[in-house]
């Protein structure tokens, strides 16, 4: 599938357009995502790098009506303003304690897996929206998540809807956000030392 570059975003250096096209819309269509397409996102995440190849990430998927309603019980009030039509959710968790002790890179590695998932979603014509506006304690209880796992984020997955489907206060925010300049995020040799 060829990817068209999002016209509202420009990169300073040459990169694949998929990075510019990934953003986090809130307007979702109610159209269900076929299971094989949905699972292809998790297949992509499977190939993310991780320390010692521990692959600490796990995903708890909700793509049936019953499962979605269970997830709705711990999604924050603001996010529920736009989450009701979302056809699939994935709660990202990471194994922070293993037989080798504390896994300090668990959430870092889970973040890499999330990044792979998000980029594959763009490739498949889907959108994703990660969020931490959830009740973490309730999610742990409702989904029986062991204490050895960190809850990292909840991701909404589906096809893009129209801005008009959103509550009025969210419509103006329904556009890709910009980023600070690359050189503002990269230091040379020590903290705060700008690249020349």
What does this structure look like?
- The protein has 196 residues and is an alpha+beta fold.
- The chain has a single domain, classed as 3-Layer(aba) Sandwich (NADH Oxidase), CATH 3.40.109.10.
- The chain has helices at residues 18-21, 35-46, 65-72, 77-83, 106-123, 136-142, 168-171, 182-185, and strands at residues 57-62, 88-95, 97-98, 101-102, 127-131, 149-158.
- The strands form 2 sheets. It has a 4-stranded antiparallel sheet, sandwiched between helices. The protein has a two-stranded antiparallel sheet with strand order 3-4.
- Strand 3 and strand 4 (101-102) form a beta hairpin.
- The longest helix is centred in the middle third of the chain and has 18 residues, at 106-123.
- The protein is globular.
- The mean pLDDT is 93.
Key features?
196 residues; alpha+beta; NADH Oxidase; four-stranded antiparallel β-sheet; two-stranded antiparallel sheet; globular; Nitroreductase-like; Nitroreductase family protein; Nitroreductase; oxidoreductase
Short description:
This protein is 33% helix and 17% strand. With 196 residues, the chain is an alpha+beta fold. The relative contact order is 0.21.
Order of helices and strands: HHEHHEEEHEHEHH
Structural class: alpha+beta
CATH class: Alpha Beta
Largest β-sheet summary:
4 strands, antiparallel
Q: Tell me, rounded to a whole number, the average pLDDT.
A: 93
